Amino acid sequence: MTPRTDWYLFDYGMVISTAPAPEDWRLLEQATGRRELESGTSPYWERREDFDAGRLTPAQYWGSVLGRDAGPDEVETLEGMDAAQWAHLNPRTLEVLETLRSSGANLALLSNMPDRMSRRYSAESPWVNHFSKLYFSGQMGLVKPDPRIFDRVAADLGATPEGIVFIDDNPQNISTARALGFQTVLHTGGTDLRAELARLGR
């Protein structure tokens, strides 16, 4: 028997949004004076999980990227550039969201995202209107794939893990959610999300 779906739980980065463009990284590199920031071992990523979890302030995070103290105006500029580079949306995912929403499905979002970025998007971005519930790591003090963040979201939604379809691009997040009982879809660059949901009987 196919489990009942009470909620669709979407990740943001690389699911709703696409990757930053090369030009975005180039502009951020010019602003910081650092090179190859896109690389997974760069200063941009080195403390990103702490930033996503709310363990670092924007000044602390951008200071770690710069390798020196960051002034308030500089932090504000870099925060704006960072939000802009992750704001490119995936039209195929938006089409699926429109279809699900028009069919009356319950939609929620769970994203590893710094607090100020999440508040900026919540206030300014039309895509948030697809969702009844928004969960951001920087506001929760937890990051995926910590099982506690999934437990908290499921409890707040009032749903069992089996009643939630979780869509994310990170295999570790998917693995943790699946182990907890969530229905899962690993979203990669070539994923046909409509087909994957149909495979689950959705």
From TrEMBL:
UniProt source species: Arthrobacter zhaoxinii
Pfam families, sorted: Hydrolase (PF00702)
Superkingdom per UniProt: Bacteria
Chain coiled-coil ranges: none
Protein name (record): HAD family phosphatase
PANTHER family listed in its UniProt record: ALPHA-D-GLUCOSE 1-PHOSPHATE PHOSPHATASE (PTHR43611), FLAVIN MONONUCLEOTIDE HYDROLASE 1, CHLOROPLATIC (PTHR43611:SF3)
